[in-house]
Design goal:
CATH superfamily of the largest domain in chain B: Cytochrome-c3 Hydrogenase, chain B
Largest sheet of chain B: 3 strands, antiparallel
Number of strands of chain A: 4
CATH class of the largest domain in chain B: Mainly Alpha
CATH topology of the largest domain in chain B: Cytochrome-c3 Hydrogenase, chain B
Structural class of chain A: mainly alpha
Radius of gyration of chain B: 27 Å
Structural class of chain B: mainly alpha
Number of helices of chain B: 20
CATH architecture of the largest domain in chain B: Orthogonal Bundle
Radius of gyration of chain A: 22 Å
Strand content of chain B: 5-15%
Order of helices and strands of chain A: HHHEEHHHEEHHHHH
Oligomer: heterodimer
Order of helices and strands of chain B: HHHEEEHHHHHEEHHHHHHHHEEEHHHH
Strand order of the largest sheet of chain B: 1-2-3
Number of domains of chain A: 1
Helix content of chain A: 55-70%
Helix content of chain B: 40-55%
Number of helices of chain A: 11
Chain lengths: 355, 477
């Protein structure tokens, strides 16, 4: 058991590595998105900076850092500079509860330290995630309002309506999972999904198909991705809430957006696709942490690929269509599914009421 | 105001002593307050007539410095003739200037929108940002050079501009165009219609949010453009169709090139229909959006695919056939609802019909000259120039002085991809036109935008704007 300075050191190392890890992930994500979309559109995509253009995002990021951060004259300064930070913080905080692999034991001298590949395991993990993603709405609203410009205002009004509506669907989609697994802790959710059903199918929560689909759709909407990207619909309201942002402040928004994409994909993997569970082909105990990390990233990046695929295929929905899709389709279906699954789980656990 | 202006056109400052008592009581002029106009224009208390100190760079302010005129210039008030529903609350509305710099205004169109939430209550298109005075320029160019000028107007359909101009000049000259030249003209203009519609498809997809559609449309258009490049040497602004015929004969092997296009483009079009026709989001975004009725089309002079989608069975290729286009069989597709979806269907079908015409031209290309043998218009053949001094002089004069066109005036119109493109040409018997007026199809489409957009959503506005396919070079000229 760790105590005192060692505990602090462990936390510091975790925070630092999580932060640098996320930055790297964003670099890869942006590059991947550009490459995949380019491939689907008969283009080459970034190819100049580094091998296969993988350093393109680094170059873009550096460029943004050295650019002037213009502040519009009519901007409300404090909220205006606070918004990008408010956008980034929840994105970083959500990542802390995501387990990216199996915990392993590290021997330093005579001491054995158990290292879990998760920032911290909150027993209210899922609720924490929902709360944090609600906070992200503030950033968008603040940015749109404080810019003192009309396009951002339109964008932020769209954003607040959209994110709040789809959060409801998202939360409802998680209820059957919580009922089924009996926990909201991320680590316990993963361990609940170990093993196989009937020795063939992996025991993943994806068996709750409607939940999975609704959560995935709401996740796309929550991250403002196509076809729900009307918050920043370039063809309609220029840049949406970040129209008036430039330089490093814009880079923060950009960073937050891509971290959110990774987060949503990772949460979907943890909650529905078994997290880091997967065959380990009998690796020795020393390297038992290797395959879980591989499986986790494989699943996450497959999901992200689906995100990108959707973006390259579908046109954008209209504001009213989006709202009616959320409130008239997704939420009623989730409610119905919550009721159905609650009954089914009750029967499974306690038997029929008459028996 | 720090110093007394000595500029004559500046606003005259009224001193308090000149005002009557009444004005003073009602607060006519407050000495402490800087002039509203100055503050807005320059952002400081500097005199407003220091024009390079304005927010928007150097510009003259309106001579009429009334508050309402300034508000119009600022874009905070819309001034037009459209009656609005004044039952709605003024406080709920905001005016937003969409353009001239905006990702989806197809160039430099500016739309003043009065929004109530996201609903558009009033639209006013403002044009002229691309005005380059091409009609006036035409008066200082010879008839032969004129095609170079007009080809830049509707830059997505250069061949139709050239064709219209050349037909007008030829009508005045009364020259006979050889069948091969006519067939080449039909071939190029129909291919141009295809490339223009493909670009429309690309931008329509893009504006609705289907980002891949953008590049798919561009892909097939590229094939057409590279054929144009082989034939004319340029990808756009070709100056290929000229009074008297075309600039050069088709290159060797053009048959194979066109045959390749006839295979590649239908494949692409089928693919797009596969992506879009069954796509619920695309259908939701286009059906019932941006509706314009048959009567409104006729009233606003809207023509081309927009009018045909509203059920106006009007195609100049059928109504007033030109350049021997009546030799080929094709259908004129029409719609019924006049919404974005019908315009999409009409244009897709027009691509197919144009492909049909192209394949008929390919099969029946007549042999012969690619330009008229009328020595008045066409320079002597190269062989003669080497032998004969007179031929050399003739050649020289055709290209310097230009050929003289008999006095008269003429109206010529062709069916461009955007609708009825017409040119009114007046000659006073000189080598240059006395007057050229262009009736641009995009102009009519843009002026009908308020009809289509009022009471729609911002997102629908973008879809509708894209579906009218305006080319601002055509609107402003």
């Amino acid at each position: 058991m760790l105590e005192g300075w060692a505990l602090f050191l462990e936390a510091a190392i975790k925070v630092f590595s999580a932060f640098s890890f996320l930055l790297t992930i964003v670099l890869v994500l942006v590059w991947m998105e550009r490459k995949v979309v380019a491939d689907m559109q008969n283009r080459i995509g970034p190819s100049r900076a580094g091998p296969f253009g993988i350093l393109q995002t680094v170059a873009d990021g550096l460029k943004l850092m050295f650019k002037e951060s213009v502040t519009p004259r009519k901007a409300d300064f404090l909220p205006y500079i606070a918004a990008p930070v408010v956008a980034l913080l929840p994105a970083l905080l959500i990542f802390l509860v995501i387990p990216i692999g199996r915990s392993f034991t590290l021997s330093i001298g005579s001491r054995e330290i158990e290292v879990s590949l998760q920032g911290t395991d909150l027993n209210i993990g899922l609720l924490y995630i929902l709360g944090m993603s609600s906070l992200a709405v503030y950033a968008v609203v603040l940015a749109g309002w404080s810019s003192g410009s009309k396009y951002p205002l339109l964008g932020s009004v769209r954003a607040s309506a959209q994110m709040i509506s789809y959060e409801a669907a998202m939360g409802l989609a998680l209820v059957p999972v919580i009922l089924f697994a009996g926990t909201t802790s991320m680590a316990e959710l993963v361990s609940h999904q170990t093993g196989l059903y009937g020795g063939v199918f992996p025991a993943w929560h994806v068996v709750l198909v409607p939940s999975f689909l609704i959560f995935f759709i709401a996740g796309v909407a929550e991250t403002n991705r196509a076809p729900f990207d009307l918050v920043e619909a370039e063809q309609e309201i220029v840049g949406g809430y970040h129209t008036e942002y430039s330089g490093f402040r814009f880079a923060l928004f950009f960073l937050a957006e891509y971290i959110n994409i990774f987060n949503i994909a990772a949460i979907t993997v943890v909650v529905f696709l078994g997290g880091w569970n997967g065959p380990d082909f009998g690796t020795p105990a020393t390297f038992s942490w290797l395959f879980p990390i591989f499986w986790f990233f494989l699943k996450t990046f497959l999901l992200i690929f689906v995100f990108i695929w959707i973006r390259a295929t579908l046109p954008r929905m209209r504001y009213d269509q989006l709202m009616s899709f959320g409130w008239k389709r997704l939420i009623p279906i989730s409610l119905l599914w919550v009721a159905l699954s609650a009954v089914a789980i009750g029967i499974r656990r306690f038997g029929f009421p008459w028996s | 105001m720090s110093e007394t202006p000595d500029h004559t056109t500046g606003p005259v400052q009224t001193s308090i002593t000149e005002l009557s008592e009444d004005a003073l009581v009602s607060g006519g002029v407050d000495e402490e307050q800087p002039d509203l106009h100055d503050v807005w224009i320059s952002g400081t208390e500097e005199p407003a007539w220091i024009t390079d100190a304005t927010d928007e760079g150097a510009q003259e302010i309106l001579s009429d410095l009334s508050d309402s005129a300034l508000a119009v210039q600022r874009g905070t008030v819309i001034s037009d003739d459209y009656v609005i529903d004044d039952t709605a609350d003024e406080e709920e509305r905001q005016i937003i200037n969409l353009g001239p710099q905006h990702p989806s205004t197809h160039g430099v169109l500016r739309l003043q929108l009065e929004l109530e939430g996201e609903t558009i209550r009033r639209v006013k298109p403002i044009i002229g940002y691309l005005h380059t005075g091409m009609e006036k320029t035409a008066e200082s160019l010879t008839f032969l050079q004129g095609a170079t000028n007009v080809t830049r107007m509707d830059y997505l359909a250069p061949f139709h501009n050239e064709l219209c101009y050349s037909l007008a000049v030829e009508q005045l000259l009364g020259v006979e165009i050889p069948p091969r030249a006519q067939a080449i003209r039909v071939l190029m203009s129909e291919l141009n219609r295809i490339s223009s519609h493909l670009l429309w498809l690309a931008t329509q997809g893009m504006d609705i949010g289907a980002i891949s559609m953008m590049l798919y449309g561009w892909r097939e258009r590229e094939a057409v453009l590279s054929f144009f490049e082989q034939v004319t040497g340029l990808r756009m602004n070709h100056d290929y169709i000229r009074p008297g015929g075309v600039a050069a004969d088709l290159p060797d092997g053009w048959e194979e090139e066109v045959a390749d296009l006839l295979v590649a483009i239908p494949e692409g079009v089928d693919e797009y229909e596969e992506i879009l026709n069954e796509n619920p989001i695309f259908i939701d975004r286009t059906q019932g959006v941006g509706v314009i009725t048959r009567e409104e089309c006729l009233a606003f002079g809207v023509s081309g695919p927009i009018a045909r989608a509203s059920g106006v069975d009007w195609d100049l290729r059928k109504a007033f056939p030109y350049s021997g286009i009546d030799r080929y069989t094709f259908e004129v597709p029409t719609g019924t609802h006049g919404d974005v979806w019908d315009r999409y269907l009409v244009r897709m079908e027009e691509i197919r019909q144009s492909l049909g015409i192209v394949s008929q031209v390919l099969e029946s290309m007549p042999p012969g000259d690619y330009r008229t043998e009328d020595r008045k218009v066409t320079p002597p053949p190269r062989q003669r120039i080497n032998e004969s001094m007179e031929a050399l002089i003739h050649h020289f004069k055709v290209f310097t002085e230009g050929f003289k066109v008999p006095e008269g005036e003429v109206w010529q119109s062709v069916e461009s991809p955007r609708g009825e493109l017409g040119m009114y040409l007046v000659s006073k018997g000189e080598a240059k036109p006395w007057r050229l007026h262009v009736r641009a199809p995009s102009f009519a489409a843009v002026q009908a935008l308020p009809m289509m957009l009022t009471d729609s959503l911002v997102a629908d506005m973008i879809a509708t704007l894209a579906s009218t396919d305006p080319v601002l070079g055509d609107v402003d000229r």
